[in-house]
Design a protein that fits this description.
5 helices; five-stranded antiparallel beta sheet; globular
């Protein structure tokens, strides 16, 4: 009888300890999920290679293009297909096709819009919003552009261009002054396209 009572007490002690252990584990889990825990990192500035880069606001807000005095109109176009699918798989291939003998290399466009003065000013502010950050690299293993900005003179000669891939956050430009450097700029460009009336290929994938 005494042995039976001892075993009963021992089992009660084990169950009590296990219950306390479970309660402690549950409290640890609750603490881990507490709202005061560190938030997830902000990845809005990720570049196309998956590395965090800082979007550095530009000190100089004026976009100085070497051909500014020759610009007659600025044309924004969307492509039916990505140019890399139609014309090759590297940046070098696409750059060659954008301009041929000082003219636009092809005219197979889905949409074509000419910017008004206020839209031109908005585009310039977008391009000039950020400057090249330290450690920036323009190398990308992804490039599927669907949009391009053409800077044209009065004879429709191509003075410069800014071609955009919103899928990869990458750009091909004729002049370094037109380069985009961070994710915020590409998102601003997406919004800009929508605002001026471009409808093709601006949705986020």
């Amino acid at each position: 009888m005494q042995s039976y009572i001892s075993i009963t007490i021992l089992l009660f002690f084990i169950v009590a300890c296990k219950t306390e252990s479970n309660e402690q584990s549950e409290q640890i889990l609750i603490d881990a999920l507490d709202s005061t825990a560190d938030p997830l990192p902000d990845r809005s500035n990720e570049d196309i290679l998956g590395n965090i880069i800082d979007c550095v606001p530009s000190v100089d807000s004026v976009l100085n293009l070497p051909f500014e005095d020759k610009i007659d109109k600025i044309q924004v176009v969307s492509y039916f297909d990505t140019r890399t699918e139609k014309y090759g798989n590297s940046l070098d291939d696409t750059i060659i096709e954008i301009e041929i003998d000082g003219r636009i290399g092809f005219n197979d466009f889905n949409e074509t819009l000419t910017l008004r003065t206020e839209e031109k000013n908005e585009l310039y502010a977008l391009i000039k919003a950020y400057e090249k950050p330290h450690g920036y690299s323009a190398i990308s293993d992804c490039y599927a552009p669907h949009h391009c900005v053409h800077f044209l003179d009065e004879d429709s000669n191509l003075l410069g261009y800014l071609e955009i891939c919103l899928i990869c956050n990458a750009a091909s430009v004729s002049h370094s002054e037109l380069q985009l450097y961070c994710g915020k700029q590409f998102e601003s460009f997406r919004s800009f396209l929508s605002k001026i009336g471009i409808k093709a290929h601006i949705e986020r994938l």
